[in-house]
What we know:
The chain crosses the membrane at residues 6-29. Helices cover 89% and strands 0% of the residues. By secondary structure, it is an all-alpha fold.
Amino acid sequence: MSGWVLGIVIGLVVVVAVAALVTPIILLARRIAGQAPRINAALMKAEVNTAPLGALTTTIDHAETIVAGLARGRARLGG
């Protein structure tokens, strides 16, 4: 009979230990879930604010063309 009691006690200790380890994880997940809408809103703002950077390649291409033209003009003028 003492084997059963020992088994039940060990089982209860394991259950309590698992509950003690899982509870903080669940609380942290709940806290993160509460902050998720604000994080998502900030990321959406960042996307809107950085969207014009997609045209930066075009701007660089035009600037390189202008600089090359200026260099050719300078070379023709002997500079």
